[in-house]
Amino acid sequence: MMMSRQSCSGAVAVSAVILILSLGSLISCSTSPLGRKQLTLMPDSQMASMGAQSFEDMKKQTPIDTDAKDNAYVKCIAEPLIRVANAQMGDQVPGGNWEIVVFQDKTPNAFALPGGKIGVNTGIFPVAKSDAQLAAVIGHEIGHVIAKHGNERVSENLEAQGGLMAIGALTQNSGMLGQLLGIGAQAGAQLGFLLPHSRTQESEADLIGLDLMSQAGFDPHQSVELWKNMSAAGGGAPPEFMSTHPSDSRRIQALTDNIPAVLPKYQAAQVSGSRPHCAR
């Protein structure tokens, strides 16, 4: 029996959805450091290249802080974290050589990109009030790289876009109903898949960062103090279900619950002589 053109395009769209979902389930055999299944479609080398290009663009677009004290302070904190991270990352960062840049930006933020790129905004200094608190920030960002969250986000977006394209093809001739279905599918992908998964990544990075800072010799209790400061500085925030980040109270509770597990690592680092003292 011959299909009409409309039903044929619909069948193709359904097949595309099935193919996308099947491909995702086949490739999502990698696991995060905390044991969660992940979808990682991109080669590490490609992610490193993308990270390097993004970092170069940022250096052109955002003024770089050349203050010697600021740079020495950030490197004093980042380098012990990097030594611990390199032992966990294999060849994700070629040669284990990270690039660290301090940006003149009042936004209280820091980031790390695949390929070993770390950026710290000067706006983080008033919020991260000690070297251990800034270590919690940088450790969290390095945690995203260790867990390949960038790869995962790119892969999720590729999968989501492919699925939405297929739904669009399926509903393109369905009038207003089709438009409503398309809008609903986009909202569902954003609120029901991409954003909640991003909160999971943020929570993972918190715990990986907690482990990194402890092994590097920074007091893990200061991670909680950092988020108290962040909460005080943040003002109003959107409801957690609409946010890509866990609520401050949820992060503080998770960090508090996990400090006993990493405290022996911090104590061992202290005994071995890993006691960073970084002053700005």
Helix/strand layout:
Layout: H1 5-27, E1 30-31, E2 37-38, H2 44-61, H3 68-89, E3 99-103, E4 110-113, E5 117-121, H4 131-146, H5 149-171, H6 175-215, H7 221-234, H8 248-272
Helix pairs in contact: 1-5, 3-4, 4-6, 4-7, 5-6, 6-8, 7-8
> How far is the N terminus from the C terminus?
77 Å
Query: Any idea what the shape is?
Result: globular
Poorly predicted runs are 1-28, 187-194, 238-242
Mean pLDDT: 80
- Strand pairing plus helix content: what structural class? mainly alpha
Strand order in space, largest sheet: 3-5-4
Radius of gyration equals 22 Å
Q: Determine the fraction of residues in helical runs and give it as a percent range.
A: 55-70%
Helix count, per DSSP? 8
Q: What is the total tally of β strands?
A: 5
Q: How many strands, which pairing sense, and closed or not: the largest β-sheet?
A: 3 strands, mixed
Order of helices and strands: HEEHHEEEHHHHH
* Strand fraction: 5-15%
Essential attributes:
two-stranded antiparallel ribbon, disordered N terminus, 8 helices, mainly alpha, 280 residues, three-stranded mixed beta sheet
Can you walk me through this structure?
The chain is 65% helix and 6% strand. It is mostly helical and 280 residues long. The chain has a domain at 44-148 and 194-272. Strand 4 (110-113) and strand 5 form a beta hairpin. Helix 1 (5-27) packs antiparallel against helix 5 (149-171), helix 4 (131-146) crosses helix 6 (175-215) and helix 5 packs antiparallel against helix 6. The longest helix is centred in the C-terminal third of the chain and has 41 residues, at 175-215. The model is unreliable at 1-28, 187-194 and 238-242 (pLDDT under 50).
